[in-house]
Amino acid sequence: MTDKTVQVSIVSPIPIAAVEPPKQLTLTQRIDADEGLKAKRKLLTVVSLILLAIAFSGAKVVEANTFIMKISFTNQDGIAYLLLLSIAFLMIRYYNYARPYHDELYKVWTERMLGDRYFHLYDEEADISEGLIDDLKPQNLIRDQNNQDCGPYKAKYRCSPFFRRHIEYTWFSGTGSGHENFATVDLMCIKSEEAKNKNKNKNKEKDTEQKQKTAKDEINFKAYIRILKYEFRYRTTRYLTHRENLDIIAPYLLGTFSIFSFIFSKEIIEVLKGFSS
Question: How far apart are CA 257 and CA 251, in angstroms?
Fold first, then answer.
């Protein structure tokens, strides 16, 4: 009787690396990675700098090589005006690419402003919200909240022409998924009690509703100017604290400055001479 040897090979399974979902890029990273935006920004910057050089230094283009053609320019003024029109066109093209980022940056700084304690302050211990946003809630939103017929609401800051400012409220009410509701409050026409956020009574529903009505027939300039001061502060500080704002707006500033420097070059040079003398 012969012994049969059985050989068994044990192959360890090959470990499979876990596939991580792609990370969502931040707004700054998406701006840096947008090749179309960078190309238009670079082109606008180069043409603006050329026009600035012509306006301030009196530089003249003698000839230029375009592909295989050699072109000599005899009308120097025509080149400057051509660059002027090119900058205007490139600014429009740049705006086409930059518009989505304008909207996102606007959303970021307005949400940051509405998070200020003047607009919204939440006390976790008392579970009470205070501030201008809570004071100006529209009547239909208050009614749905009292009936426990709606979820959390959202408030957005809207800028309209002729310095009109609004707060837009959105919320869902009803059973199931519910339906979306909208309400807009004009910040130029609000009661002073609401703007100052004083004498708030949470226990008396009638008194609260009267305070939260929007005054349509009078303009409260004192409260409106205070709101504009907050807006101005958050509009300006964003350029100092968040670089993506300046990355988007800088080509507009450079292009506009180059156009004005070409049109008013003599006046600007005289002013600079006055400072240097």
Answer: 10
For residue 117, give both structure tokens: 């304690």
From 129, 97, 98, select the one nearest 114 (Cα to Cα): 129
pTM: 0.67
Residue 166: enclosing H or E segment and its boundaries?
strand 164-173
Query: What is the amino acid identity at position 170?
Result: T
Report the distance separating Cα 117 and Cα 138, nearest Å. 20
- First-residue to last-residue Cα distance in the chain: 118
Q: Tens of pLDDT along 239-250?
A: 999 889 999 999
Is the CB of residue 105 less than 8 Å from the CB of residue 27?
A: yes
d(CA 97, CA 276): 40
> Residue 75 and residue 62: Cα distance in Å, rounded?
10
pLDDT tier, 276 (very low <50, low <70, confident <90, very high otherwise): confident
Distance CA 81, CA 88 (A): 11
Residue 163 per-residue DSSP state: T
Q: Which of 180, 191, 184 is nearest to 158 (CA)?
A: 184
Chain centroid to CA 41: 18
Gap between the Cα atoms of 88 and 92, Å rounded? 7
**Under DSSP, is residue 188 helix (H, G, I), strand (E, B) or coil?**
coil
CA 189 to CA 219: how far, in whole Å? 5
